Amino acid sequence: MEKLAAEWKPVRHYVAMTDRAHMPAINLPGLLCYEELLAAETPDMDWPEFDEGTASSLCYTSARRAIPRACSTRTAPTVLHASPVAWPTTPPSPCGISVCPVVPMFHVNAWGIPYSAAMGGAKLVFPAPNLDGASLYVSSRRKRVTIGLGVPTVWLAAPQISRRGQQAASTS
């Protein structure tokens, strides 16, 4: 980041997702500590009121025709999409469900799973940057994932997951 920061002049701040004790020892202008930012805020919030037609997210296509396009999703369809998916996870606390969407947010907002998991009270686990079978296996075991969601190509590594994943789990 130190090398790239000089080229990213419009960026005013960078946030290290850690506490003060684990802040990286780097020279990065505008580097802030995530936990200190949270501690400085109040838990009180005045929730904004807005029309259900207001955009809730902006996703980009994967450019099948060579030109990426943006797609805005409104609030009402996002809530309607998340609601039926959340129903099986209620009641929130005793359910013990842990959901891991191995689906990018630009793909229909990860099928609405981040919203429905929060709505139903399920624990939400995002996968690590390594999406190979062994890494997904180790991460899922470590985070106690009960439901993993992804396209078939993600699960093609499944025959290797138990063999390589157990080896990786035993070494980590």
Report on this structure.
The chain is α/β, with parallel strands linked by helices. The chain has two domains: 2-39, no CATH class; 55-171, Rossmann fold (3-Layer(aba) Sandwich), CATH 3.40.50.12780. The protein contains eight helices and seven strands; from the N terminus they run αββαββαβααβαβαα. Helix 3 (75-86) crosses helix 5 (113-120). The radius of gyration is 20 Å and the shape is globular. The two termini are 27 Å apart.
Quick rundown:
With 172 residues, the protein is α/β, with parallel strands linked by helices. It folds into 2 domains: 2-39, no CATH class; 55-171, Rossmann fold, CATH 3.40.50.12780. It has helices spanning 2-5, 34-39, 75-86, 108-111, 113-120, 133-142, 152-155, 158-171; strands at residues 14-16, 31-33, 55-60, 70-74, 98-101, 123-124, 147-149.
